[in-house]
Every structure is written in C-alpha cells, then in structure tokens.
Amino acid sequence: MANKKMNAFYAQSGGVTAVINASAAGVIETARKHKDKIGKVYAGRNGIIGALLEDLVDTGKESKSAIANLKYTPSGAFGSCRFKLKSLEANKREYERLIEVFKAHDIGYFFYNGGGDSADTCFKVSQLSKKMGYPIQAIHVPKTVDNDLPITDNCPGFGSVAKYIAVATREASFDVRSMCATSTKVFVLEVMGRHAGWIAAAGALAADADHDIPVVILFPEIPFDRTKFMAAVDAKVKQYGYCSVVVSEGVATADGKFLADQGLKDNFGHTQLGGVAPVVANMIREDLGLKYHWAVADYLQRAGRHIASKNDVDQAYAMGKAAVELAVQGKNSVMPTVVRLSDKPYKWKVGEAPLSKVANVEKMMPKSFISKDGFGITPKCRAYLEPLIQGEDSPKYKNGMPQYTTLKLVSVPKKLGDTFEL
To answer: C-alpha angle 20/95/113, rounded to 5°?
Structure first.
C-alpha cells in the first residue's frame, strides 16, 4: 500500500452523539490534506452495513463549508448502526464480503467511529491483512456518551452529554424547589449508562459552592438498596423540602437484575433498558408518600448540540484528525486517545492505544469517584468531570433555531453488481 494511493472508508457506529460529526469533519478534512497518500474518502451509509451492502457515500461531493459545518451538527451525518461483526471463524462470509468491497473500491484505510463494540469490530477488521491477505489499516475513532472506553482519559461525546445532564438537573431542581411547599417534592431524571455511571455522576455537578442543591445519584456500580435509598431521599426532603434524583438506566439490585429490565434484547444481545425513572418514582410514592415528577433524558441528552461542551467538540475533532495522521504514518489496529496533563488549568494532548487493549474492555467509575454513602461524587470525581463540560461552542442560529447541516450523501456507483443479504 505504501507505493499506491488508496481510498479511505469512514463509518459511524452505535448510538450517535452531539459531537460525532466533529470527528467526521476531522477525518475528512485531514484526509483531504493528505492527497499524496489518501485518494477518495468514502463513508458507509448506516455504518459498516454500508460496506457490506456496498452502499458508499462519496464525501468528495460535499463542499468544504458543509464538512466544516458538521462540527456544529448533532447525530450521525452518514447514518449509524448497531451491528457487530462476529469472529472470522464464525462468519467468514461477512469478512470476505468486506474484502470484495474494499478491493472493488481500492480502500486501504478503515476509520470506524464508535464505542466499545465498534472498537471490537475495528480490531477484527485490522486483522484482515494477516488472516486474509488484504492490506487494510484500521483505526478506531473513539466515541461514546457512556465514557466507558479504556485507556483514553475520556470519550468524545461524553463531555457534552454530561453538560446537558448537569444543566438539566440544576434547572429542574430550581423548578422543584419553587413548587415543593404545596406540590412536587421529588424529581427523578433517568440518564443513559448501562454498566458505568459516568453520565449519572454528571448530575451531581448541578450542585456546587454557589448552588446548594440536594441531589441523590443512583449508579450502576452500586447495587440498589431500596431501604438506604429511601432514607437518603427522605433526609434530603426533610432538610431542603425537595430532592432531585439522577438514576442511571443500568441500576441493578445486588443479584444483578436491572430495575428497568423489560425482558428484551438489542442487536448486540444486551438487555434492552429504559423506564427505570417511573419504577424509582413509584417506589418513592409507595415508601414515602411524596408527590413526584419524572423524566427520561433519552435521545435529548446525546443530541443536545446547542449546549455542547467546547472541550468535547475540540477533542472529537482532534480524534478524527489524529486517526488519519496515525494511518498515514503506517499505523494499524490503534485508537487515538485523550491524555490528560492537568486539571487546573485543564490541559490535554493526543495519545494512542492498541486496539487489542481497547476492544471488549469496559471502564467503570472508580470507587474513589463515588462518595462513601454511594449516592454522590467525591471531590476527585468533580475535578475529573468539571473540565469536560467547560466551554461553549454554539451553532449559528436563524429565526431562533440552530442551523444544522444535512449532507447531499451522493452514492458511489456500485462495482460488484450483486446483492448481499445481512
């Protein structure tokens, strides 16, 4: 590949974020600056499914301004998917198909933008060179609101969802405080986080030295104890007159059963979660007899580009840029990372990690980040979280509404002339 200019394939995977398109911009703009080594940049329509179905988008048809404006646009501009490649031995057909498509379109660079399952897929693709005799450099571009990728200090996408939850918790708490004398006394906010409580922890940022707000956090790392939880809520309500509860969707009892287990599975075989807020709120009504309101942040928390963290946007772009730079250096099977240098002032740099140490590894909240009672965060956690939500990077507004970019998404003509069944 060193003597031949190859094309690149970029795809977005898993749950999208407010800043994943910033990473896309970083990949595409940087690749355009390396025309000596990288030819065209194709994007997979709906993630890696686009590669399997030979459904490619020619990013070269998009203007410079359109790609630049991706930095201010939420969600996945090229479409995402939840599709995990099995092992080469278990599904050789899919890997052979990838090679067919890569060969047909002279693709030698593979940039996969996603979380843990995406890192696993990227790692498997990186092995194609050795196992199937086709030269492909696979670089994983980190992204996940769950903030659970290992090695990297934090994950692009997390800082903005953390900012959204922290702000939402503070604002809702002000609302409840104003009504608690004669009405609602407990507000319950459900946030994402299957096994790791990073997003839930961000809710604790609603309270600080200038805002004395009673917040109780339910982390998935801490087994749910109904009696202790009710005691914590009751104490807050008696002291303040009200209380806000931030609960992670992945909260489970000591026996491992999710409070929100609906008995359904997603495409990765994970338990389908959602709906823990009304479960917890109903417990509060039953045990304490308090009036409540509950809300589920759901897509709102990860789509809130209007309130994105500038540090998060900058890091998302930097990861996309670094992925291309690693590729042109000849690297394979690696992921660019965020390396924290200091908290105050907040400084960071770009590092890298081997995918063999990233794939299928989940980073949980350290015990040192969770308060002894299990319902709050420690000063150490606050020092970690606060820089990640800082800075504003608002999109342009027109008629009171943010102006987001919708790409042309011009399809690349198919060369294989066949159909592939997923």
So the answer is: 10
Distance of alpha carbon 128 from alpha carbon 230, whole angstroms: 53
Tens-digit pLDDT profile for residues 139-154:
999 999 999 999 999 9
User: Buried b vs exposed e over 103-136: b needs ≥16 C-beta within 10 Å?
Assistant: eebebbbbbbbbbbbbbbbbbbbbbbbeeeebeb
Q: Can you tell me which residue has the tokens 């459900």?
A: 190
Q: Please name which of 258, 173, 255, 248 lies closest in space to residue 218, comparing C-alpha atoms.
A: 248
Q: What percent of the chain has pLDDT over 70?
A: 96
Q: In this structure, how many other beta carbons lie within 10 angstroms of the beta carbon of residue 366?
A: 12
Task: State the catalytic residues.
Answer: 146
- pTM of the entire predicted model: 0.95
For the chain, which domains are there? Answer: 6-143+306-361+393-402 (3.40.50.450), 158-302 (3.40.50.460)
SS3 of residue 202 by DSSP:
helix
- 280-289 confidence digits (pLDDT tens): 999 999 999 9
Residue 1's pLDDT is what?
Answer: 45
Give the residue carrying structure tokens 């198909």.
97
